[in-house]
Specification:
With 415 residues, the protein is of the alpha+beta class. It is built from 15 helices and ten strands. The two termini are 33 Å apart.
C-alpha cells in the first residue's frame, strides 16, 4: 500500500520546476507515445475486426453455419434428418441442397462452375444469397422450367444476361446409340447475384433443387442439408453434438472447418499486428525509464534528506514508482479515449477524408470491400489497456530501485 506521504511526493515530482522543464518535456513525450500506441492498437484491431466481420458475412451469404451430408454424396431421408435436427433450440432453419461440379457454355465462352440446387422458398432461411440477387428473383426458379441464377462474375465471363441461355454439361455420362455422351441441359438465365466474394460470384450458379436432382441423377435424394443457427459461433460445438447424435453414416461440417485456413490467416494477421503495435507502447514505456533516471539524478539531494529523516528504501522506491505510474496511467487513459472514439467513428471519418482530399482508399473496381469497416471489441480494449499499464509499471522498477539504493552521505558530499 502507498502511504499519503509517498503519494504526495510522487505526485509533486511530476510538476515541472524552472530547472526541470526538459525532464517534464520528456515525460510529456512518453505520455503521448503511450497514448499514440494505445490509440493505434485499438483502431487497427477494430478495423481488422470489421474486415473479418464483412468477409465472414459475405462467406456466410453463400455458405451455411453447418451442413449434414453422407460420405456417398446421397442423402435420401433428408426430411427425417431435418425433423431430428430442428428439435435443437439453437437451430433456426434447415434447407436441402444439391451440389455438383459442371461446365457452363454460352456461344464460344466456356467456364467451370458449381451448380447448387436449392428450394427457392427455403433458401432465404439459411443463407443471405436471396438478398444479393441483383437482377431477377430467386422465386423465378421453378421446377421443370430449368432456370438458372448466375454469379455476377460468372455471367460476365460467359457474356450472358437475363433471358439468355447457357448449356450445362454434367460430368455424368449417357450411353446411347452413338456411344458415350456427356449429359447436357440448356438453362435460361432468370437472375444474377453478387455477394461480394469472387470465389462465389465467379464459380457458383443456382438452380431449382428438382432440376439439379435430374441433372445429377439423384432421383428423390439430395446432396445434404444446410442448417442455420441462432449463434454462428456455436457451430463447432453443434456439429460435434449432432454428429454424435445422428445414427448412420453422416458427415457434419461447420463453417469454420470449411474456411479454416482463411480464418486462421485472419487471426494470425491480427496477432502479428497486435505484437507490432505493442512495440510502439514498449518504446514509449522505455522513455519512462530515461525520464525517471534523470529525475533520480536530479533529486539525489532530496532522496538523501528523506533518508536522513527516516524514510526507508521502500518508501523512496514507491515515490518514483508513483511518478512513473502517473505517466503510464494518464497516457493509457488518453490513448483508450482516443482509440475508442476513433474506432467508433472510422466509418464516418474515412469517407469525410476521402471527400476532402478527393481520393479513394479502396477503389470499388479493385476491392470487393470498398468501405473501411470497424468493429470495436471491448475485450480487446481491456487487453490493450492492461498491456500498456503493465509495461508502464515495469518501466518504473529499475529507476525506482536505483533511487532506493542511494546512500545519503555520498549524495550530500558535493552539495
Amino acid at each position: 500500500m502507498f502511504r499519503p506521504i509517498e503519494l504526495f511526493i510522487g505526485l509533486r515530482y511530476t510538476h515541472a520546476k524552472r530547472r526541470t522543464h526538459f525532464i517534464s518535456f520528456i515525460s510529456l513525450i512518453s505520455m503521448l507515445g503511450i497514448a499514440l500506441g494505445v490509440t493505434a492498437l485499438i483502431t487497427v484491431l477494430s478495423v481488422m475486426n470489421g474486415f473479418e466481420r464483412e468477409l465472414r458475412d459475405r462467406i456466410l451469404g453463400m455458405a451455411s453455419h453447418a451442413t449434414i451430408s453422407t460420405f456417398g454424396g446421397r442423402l435420401g431421408n433428408w426430411q427425417s434428418v431435418a425433423e431430428e435436427v430442428m428439435v435443437h433450440d439453437e437451430v433456426v432453419a434447415t434447407a436441402p441442397y444439391v451440389r455438383g461440379e459442371t461446365m457452363l457454355s454460352a456461344g464460344e465462352q466456356v467456364s467451370g462452375a458449381i451448380i447448387r440446387g436449392v428450394l427457392p422458398e427455403e433458401e432465404g432461411k439459411v443463407s443471405e444469397v436471396v438478398a444479393h440477387v441483383r437482377d431477377g428473383n430467386i422465386r423465378h426458379l421453378a421446377a421443370g422450367d430449368y432456370g438458372i441464377i448466375l454469379g455476377s462474375e460468372l455471367a460476365f465471363s460467359l457474356g450472358v444476361g437475363l433471358g439468355d441461355q447457357v448449356t450445362v454439361v454434367s460430368p455424368q455420362i449417357m450411353v446411347g446409340p452413338t456411344g458415350v455422351l456427356p449429359r447436357l441441359r440448356r438453362f435460361t438465365v432468370v437472375g444474377i447475384f453478387e455477394v461480394g466474394m469472387y470465389e462465389y460470384d465467379r464459380g457458383v450458379a443456382l438452380v431449382h433443387i428438382d432440376d439439379a436432382a435430374r441433372l445429377f441423377r439423384l432421383d428423390d435424394a439430395v446432396t445434404g442439408l444446410r442448417v442455420k443457427l441462432t449463434d454462428l459461433f456455436t457451430a463447432p460445438a453443434f456439429a460435434r453434438e449432432i454428429g454424435n447424435q445422428l445414427s448412420g453414416d453422416y458427415h457434419v461440417r461447420d463453417w469454420t472447418r470449411q474456411h479454416a485456413n482463411f480464418f486462421r490467416a485472419v487471426k494470425t494477421e491480427k496477432r502479428v499486428m497486435f505484437i507490432i503495435l505493442t512495440l510502439i507502447i514498449a518504446v514509449a514505456a522505455f522513455n519512462i525509464v530515461s525520464t525517471l533516471v534523470m529525475v533520480v539524478a536530479d533529486k539525489r539531494a532530496d532522496i538523501a534528506i528523506l533518508r536522513t529523516l527516516g524514510a526507508s528504501p521502500g518508501t523512496i522506491m514507491k515515490i518514483f514508482v508513483i511518478q512513473g505510474a502517473v505517466i503510464g496511467i494518464f497516457g493509457t487513459l488518453l490513448g483508450v479515449a482516443g482509440g475508442v472514439a476513433l474506432a467508433l467513428n472510422v466509418e464516418t471519418l474515412v469517407p469525410a477524408i476521402e471527400a476532402f482530399f478527393n481520393v479513394q482508399f479502396l477503389a470499388p473496381d479493385v476491392y470487393y470491400i470498398s468501405d473501411v469497416p470497424s468493429e470495436l471489441h471491448w475485450d480487446d480494449v481491456g487487453v490493450m489497456t492492461s498491456v500498456a499499464l503493465v509495461l508502464s509499471l515495469l518501466a518504473t522498477l529499475y529507476p525506482a530501485w536505483r533511487a532506493a539504493r542511494t546512500h545519503p552521505a555520498e549524495a550530500l558530499r558535493y552539495e
